[in-house]
Amino acid sequence: MRRPLSAGIGLLITLSLVQVQARAAPVETLPKPIRTSLKTDSIVCSHPESLFLIYEASSIAMAGGGSDAFKAYFAAAGNVFEARSECLVQSQSIEVTVEGYTTINNPLKPEPVVYGRFGIEGSDNKVWATIGNLPAFEKDALRSGLVKSSAQIADTPR
Fold it and tell me: Which residues form the signal peptide (predicted)?
């Protein structure tokens, strides 16, 4: 069953409004870097805003169009960001050291989402992943109060 055009237009309008209002907070340096594994099949991006667009729009697609809409959007968004060398899927679990973090507030949700910044061996550039894909950082953030609940912790949908 196809969704009416108005549902697609509504999704675009919502995404536009969320994108305009959603900006990453200044990067905070962790007092002590946290060594953690990056989960298998995690999406990493050069900018936290790219992760925000992928995950938040995917959740809107899921709510508005169900599982098929979610899968289609998530796959298409991943392809676009990967083609532009902005994001990639890290297919193996690797050890990383989270050095900093930022948050992005979604005006449609009560709590900000947290993103961790780290380097990947062999690259001079820092990349970002959602806190849910960085288990030791997630555990530390819950313990320290940086995040109040798992609702702020997004990870790669399976």
Answer: 1-24
